[in-house]
Each structure stands twice: as structure tokens, then as C-alpha cells.
Amino acid sequence: MPPTLAPRHTLLLLLLLALVAALYLPGLAGPFMFDDGPALTANPYLRIDGSEFDDWRTAAASSRSGPTGRPLAMLSFAANYAAADAVRAVPVKAVNLLLHLACGVLVFLFARVVLRRGLRPSATGTDLDTDAVALLAAALWLLAPLQVSTVLYAVQRMTVLSTLFALLGLVLFARRRERWAQCGAGAGEVIATALWLALLALLAMLCKENGVLLLWLLPVLEVSLFRGQWAGRPRPLLAALGWLALLAPLLPLALWWTPQALQAAYAQRDFTLPERVLTQLRLLWQYLAWMVYPDIRGMSFQHDDIPLSRGWLQPVTTLLAASAWLATLAAALLLRHRVPLLLFALLFFLVGHVLESSFWPLEMVYEHRNYLPGIGVFIALAAVLAAAVRRRIFPALRPQLLLFAVLAACATLLFLRVFSWGEPLRLAAVNAANHPQSSRTQFFLAQSHLRAYDASHRRGDADSTERSKHLLFARHHFELMYQNNPRDMAAIVMLYYMDRHHLPQLQQYRDWFTILEQVARDRPLQASDTAALEALVDCYVADACGDDMARLLALFDTLEARYPRRVALQHLRFRLLQHDGATPAQRLAQLQEMQRRFPGNAKTYQYLLQEYAAAGDTSALFEGIATWLRHDPDRRQLGVIRRLFGTSAEGAP
């Protein structure tokens, strides 16, 4: 049995949780952003009242993120909607905060076992109170400013929930393995534990796919902390099995590694597979630096200003980073008996990053990727700090004063970052000030100024000067975005919109549409570009961007020739046809062609059913529904079909 927790440690843990909750409160009313849109605020499947089971089912299946769709996380968002009758920032982020605090408690429980196994008197100079050090580890993890972009980025509840289940599995395994190291265990207990771990790994995966890494983190604990100990004796075979389990996942990768299979996905990125892998070698050190030295000026929601590694010497820090990883890993292996925490923290960090910071064609950088991998680092940092305090490395400072200073600094930095996340314009301005070369931070700041302008205009504020400032600031930051990346479609589209709709006197200086046509010929079309094209179509439909429809359709001809399988381009073209006064026959012809080419696409069927209903063609309407359902065996679209016909939850018209 693990040692009983002292009352003073329980009290300190509760005070820590209360402090963290108080520090995060100013950020709960902050904005939804980026992926929050498609996943939450613009997701029609989450708009449920909770009275129908089928609504819960379709809400759980409403995400297209990852292979699993992350149904448990989506269910939690649906519960938020049902409770508040909307997806509102405060309740959504409050749940994220509560889950974060629960993860903090599990970090403490996990750290207790890790430190009991990993701390050696020979390494620390004396025995340490492992519960106190575990509490320090939980405090460092909970107070880390790096966590803000996970807790307050609403959609990253997926990461928090996945980590929660992974931590439950880690605590379960660590506690039982600690007892087995002393007393052994029967086959029944081992099998029961394995089944619980499999269930927790499955639950973690259903929140976010990297929850599967729980199963890979277990051998990390085995090789670094337990090392084959069983019933009070070292078992070489068990130690060898631990190393085999750690290295086994690398074997399928080595045998079936086919970079060609990833080429289609990388066609949507502005970097290549080698560039991503090489850049990650540097970024992993950057992540560690943000944990050890939390400089919030370097942190941001977006990090697209980080230069790519074009080769081992471009920049030379790529080779240095790779060499440093090899040297650190070699040192950890050599010192694994004297300083087991070093090997534990290193392997935990690297294994935790293996999915999101390796060769998969994901976005290059996100801070929330450190939420689980950083736990081992913070446990090791707590041990180093506790040992430094105990050895009086800083003799001029009392030990309690040094610890208080460190935690107070972390809490202050956390609050400053949370405060910036509490208001859209403030957050965007801070991010742009910290990362002026980032195109995306400039875009978000420009958008925030545009929203402020629109809000002031709707209110009818008398201060036209203030409104004009917002408009000019928006134009300025879109221009900076274009200067940072002249091939960014979003920058070009927004500058075209600003000069056509708000500042027509500037049209004579730059022909933005011609620039857009040039970029469309060879830029890899990314998700952000599709969103920019949607904004361009919105502008035309609102009669705010001129009437040169032929030229705009020619732009879509160019893009569709390059990307014939992008159904989103077809939908945008259809909206243009609607606006341009196409006949019902012309609209139906395009929709039927889209139905033939993309037979399972829900949005196509929504447009198609609306056209049949407008034409009064009941037979075609029901045939369209039947065809749609044939391509929807899970009946995810029943709620959407019901809403299209304006029916109530009970089915009454």
C-alpha cells in the first residue's frame, strides 16, 4: 500500500488547486478561436437539448478530427450545449479548467510513486520528503504558463480529457507495479490490471488519438524506474521484456515505413516531410526551454514564424539539436542506475511527442502538445529544485523563501498570460507584439480590429474616429501579414476586401485580385486558403467586392483543375451560381454532378434537398433523402434532415 498522505500535504494540495482556479478565472470569458469554429461554434450537431438519445449519438460522431472522431470529447461539448442552450465560452472553458485541476491531482499521485522509485540518496545527498517534492511537481505543472493555450483553447478539451484518462492509467500501473516490485502478484491481478489499462487507453484514444501512447509510456516506467524488480528481487527476463516493449513499436515503423503514403497529405502543407522531421529536432528543445525557463514573450497561440530546417546545416542548429538529443540519451542510459529520473523524464517526453512531433503531416508547432509529455519533465525539475534547496546551493536564501519565489514567479507569469487570453483584441495584440513575423498572429489581430469596428458600427457609436482607427489598424496588420508571407491567400483576400469595400481609394495602388490569381496557380491549397476563399465568396454574395463574376469563376476553374477532389471548391462555386441568378436547372445540374462525384458529402445533399423542396418536387426530395441515407449507414445525418424540414424533437411538423 502507498504511504498515507499527511494532512498538511492534503491541505497544501487543496490550496494549490484553489490558487490555480483563481488565476485562470480572468481568462474564462476569452474568445473562441481557430478550430473552435468548425468543432464547436459552427457545429450543428452539438445544438441539442439533451432529450433525444439520437442527438447524443450524432453529436458524439460530429467531429472529423483524427481517425476516431474523438467521440467522448464531443459528447462533453454536447453536454455543455444542452446545459447552457448554446456553446458559450465561460461554461466550456470552466469545464476545461476543472478537468485541468483533476489532471493536476493525478500528476501529484503519479509523481509520488515516480519519486519514491526515482530519488536516490546518492543523487540528492540526503533523503527528501517525496510527497513534498510530488506536490512541488504538481505545482510546477499546474502553474506553468505553457498550459494556458491548452486550458483556454476550448477545443483542446480533447487533449485534457485524453491526458486525464492516460494519467489514470499511469497512476494505476505505477502503484500496482510498485507493490509488485516488493511483493509480486498473481496472474489474475496482472490480467485484471492489463484489462483496466486497455480500457483506459481506449477511453483516452476516444478523446484524442495520442491517448494510445499510454501503452507506450508503461514500458518507459518499467525500464527507467522498476528495471525488472519483482517480489523483492531483480528479474533479468522481466527487465529485458521491458526494453523489448519500449523498442517494439519502432519495429513496424522500420519495416513498413513508406514516405510515399504521406505525400498526398504533405501536398496540403507548405513544408516537406524531411523539413518537418528536421524542424521537430529543434522544436523539442524549444518546448523544453519553455518549461524550464517560462518566458511568456516567446509563447503564442501561433508559431508560424519559426524558420524551417531545410537541411542538417540550414540552420546549423538542426545538427546541433540532433547531436544534443543523442548525447542526452546516451548520458541518461549511462546514468540510469545513479539518476533514474533523468532517463524517465527524457523517455517520457520523447515518447509523449512521438505522434504529434514526428513525421505526421500536422501543423508544425503547438504548445498544447506538451500537456502530457511535459509531466515527466516537471517531476524531474521538482526533484532538481528540491535537491538544490536541501543542499543549500543558494546559502543566502532560506529554502522556503527560494521555493516561494519560484512558485510566485510561475503564478505571476501564468496570471499575465491568462489575463491576455481574457479579451480577443488584447490577446491578438500581445501575440502579434511577441511574434511580429508571424502571418497568423497578424491575421488574428487584424480580424479583432475588424470585429471591433463592426461592433462599434452596429452600436452606432458616435466616435467615428475610434471606428476609423480600428479599420486602419485592420488594414495595416493585413498588410504586415502579406509582407511576412506574400503567398498567403488569406492576406491577399482580406486586402482585396478592405480596398474594395472599406477603403476604395487604395484600389489604384495594388491589384490584389491579379496577385490572388497568380498565387492560385501554384500555391499548395491549405485549410486556411479554403477559409479565405469562403470569405471571398461571402464578400461577393454580400455585394461588397464588385461584380466581376466571370473572373472569380475563372479563379475557381484554376483551383478545381489542380484539386478536382476538393468538394469545398464545388460548394463555393455553387454559392456563386446561386447569387449570380443561375436557373434552377443549372443549379440542379451542378448539384447532381457533385452528388455523383462526392456521393457521401452531407453539405451537397443539404443543398440538393433545399433545391428539390423549393421546386416542389416531392418525389425527387424523398429519393434524395433515401440516397443520402444509403451513404450514411450510421444515420449521423438524421438530425440534420429533421432540421431541414423544420420538425420538432417529437417529429411534429
Summarize the structure.
The chain is 67% helix and 1% strand.
Task: Report on the architecture of this protein.
- This protein folds into two domains: 24-247 and 259-420, no CATH class; 582-653, no CATH class.
- The protein has 31 helices and two strands.
- 67% of the residues lie in helices and 1% in strands.
- It is mainly α and 653 residues long.
- Mean pLDDT is 89; it is low at 122-126 and 647-653.
- It has helices at residues 7-24, 36-41, 53-60, 71-84, 89-118, 121-124, 130-142, 148-151, 157-183, 187-205, 214-226, 236-247, 250-256, 263-266, 273-292, 317-334, 340-352, 374-390, 399-421, 424-434, 439-459, 464-484, 489-502, 512-520, 527-541, 549-562, 567-579, 584-597, 602-615, 618-630, 638-644; strands at residues 229-230, 233-234.
- A two-stranded antiparallel ribbon has the order 1-2.
Structural class: mainly alpha
The total number of structural domains is 2
Specify the number of helices. Answer: 31
Note the beta-strand portion: under 5%
Overall geometry = globular
Biggest β-sheet: strands ordered side by side in the sheet: 1-2
- The whole-number mean of residue pLDDT values reads 89
Radius of gyration over C-alpha positions, nearest whole angstrom: 28 Å
Question: Approximately how much helix is present in the residues?
Answer: 55-70%
Low-confidence stretches: 122-126, 647-653
Largest sheet: 2 strands, antiparallel
Number of strands: 2
For the termini, the CA-CA separation is 62 Å
